[in-house]
Amino acid sequence: MQFLQAAEHRIGHTDHATLVFAEGVLVIADWEVTEHAPDADGRVHVKVRGWLANAGLLEDPHTQPVQEGPAHLVRAELRGHQTVTDRQVHVDYQHVGRPYPSNWDHPGYLTTITWARRVDSTGAPIPEDEI
Q1: Chain-wide mean pLDDT for the chain?
Q2: In 77-108, which ranges are E strands?
Q3: What are the b/e assignments for 23-59, b being 16+ CB within 10 Å?
Q4: What whole-number distance in Å separates Cα of residue 125 and Cα of residue 48?
Q5: What is the pLDDT of residues 56-91, one digit of tens each?
Q6: pLDDT in tens, 36-59
Q7: Is the alpha carbon torsion for 6, 8, 12, 16 positive or negative?
Q8: DSSP letter at 126?
Q9: Which of 14, 97, 116, 117 can bridge 30 by disulfide, Cβ–Cβ 3.0-4.6 Å?
Q10: Which residue has better confidence, 101 or 15?
């Protein structure tokens, strides 16, 4: 059983990723990357999801590091994955609250960044200008 007051409950000891956008910078903690199998058109949908680590409360859209919705991802280096550069993505924030007594070192926003890329029948990537 993990106690809410224990030090290991905090995201400070988890892997952080920095995603640089044209609009700002997102730092997400305890992140994961999910890639779906290609659909009939060869689109592979990719999702990076983690806890927002560099923001306060997001009720005011002016305090968001990157506005929710469409955004331009300039660069993202995710350990164990190829560097992602120059992508049109979609950013979502989901407020999931805080555990009692509100002792996480982040405000409880699950952040999801999604995009699609295309591959041919052999699995080789199709350059963006050909899509």
Answers
A1: 79
A2: 84-95
A3: eeebbbbbbebeeeebeeebebebbbbbbbbebeebe
A4: 19
A5: 666 666 667 888 899 999 999 888 888 889 989 999
A6: 988 888 888 999 999 888 776 666
A7: negative
A8: P
A9: 14
A10: 15
DSSP-assigned letter for residue 119 = B
Answer yes or no: are the C-beta atoms of 85 and 105 closer than 8 Å.
Answer: no
CB 93 within 8 A of CB 58: yes
pTM of full prediction above 0.90: no
Query: How many CA atoms lie less than 13 Å away from 93 in the CB half-sphere?
Result: 25
Instruction: State the Cα–Cα distance between residues 90 and 2, nearest whole angstrom.
Output: 34
Q: Above 70 in pLDDT, residue 31? A: yes
Tokens of 34: 């999910």
What's the rounded Cα separation, in Å, for the pair 84 and 104? 29
Predicted local confidence at residue 72, as pLDDT = 95
Residue 41 is predicted with a pLDDT of 83
Residue that has been written with the tokens 């591959």 in this structure: 119
Backbone angles phi, psi at 71, to 5 degrees: -150, 165
